[in-house]
Specification:
Blueprint lengths: L3 E5 L11 H4 L4 H14 L4 E5 L3 H14 L2 E5 L8 H10 L3 E5 L21 E4 L4 H19 L1
Parallel strand pairs: 1-2, 1-3, 3-4, 4-5
Helix pairs in contact: 2-5, 3-4
């Protein structure tokens, strides 16, 4: 089976150092390890990547169309700005989940709007690193449901 792509946008390479009161103490490497262990338990493999560059995220979503079975995306601040990521997700035609560590709805108004949300199956936010685990479980459910269909 093809891997799930777990894609991370800008500033997520700074986790552990960055505003720990909001984003927690776990590093992106810690989260990657947790995602791998969880995915393995579900019989999935993952490709885990981070970029600060919008176009690179677009290219990885395009690549996913052929090489992945689903996408979990924390697009960071591009969530709130990127029509390009919206369009790439639409074109990928794969099960996809938007996720965030923080509860964006409890935060500044500019974080309340997502350009990603209309292009994915669902959104998970506010559970810290557990948001990644929940997103992988959600993709597993979607993939299992697809197989039964
Ligand atoms: C991460 C970011 O970098 C912010 O720009 C988003 C998201 C929230 C998170 O909570 O994972 O607004």
């Amino acid at each position: 089976m093809k891997p799930v792509y777990v894609l991370n946008g800008p500033n997520l390479n700074m986790l552990g150092l960055r505003e720990p009161a909001i984003y927690g103490a776990a590093t992106l490497a810690d989260i990657e390890a947790r995602c791998r262990a969880h995915a393995e338990g579900l019989g999935l493999s993952i490709t885990f990547r981070q970029s600060n560059i919008e176009g690179e995220l677009v290219s990885w979503i395009q690549e996913a169309r052929e090489k992945a079975c689903g996408i979990a995306l924390n697009a960071g601040a591009y969530t709130h700005t990127s029509i390009a990521l919206h369009d790439a997700l639409k074109a990928a035609e794969l099960p996809a989940v938007e996720l965030h560590l923080s509860n964006v709805h409890q935060r500044e108004d500019f974080r309340h709007h997502s350009f990603i949300a209309p292009a994915v199956n669902g959104v998970i936010c506010g559970f810290g690193p557990e948001s990644y685990v929940l997103a992988i479980s959600a993709l597993h459910s979607l993939l299992t449901a697809n197989k039964k269909a």
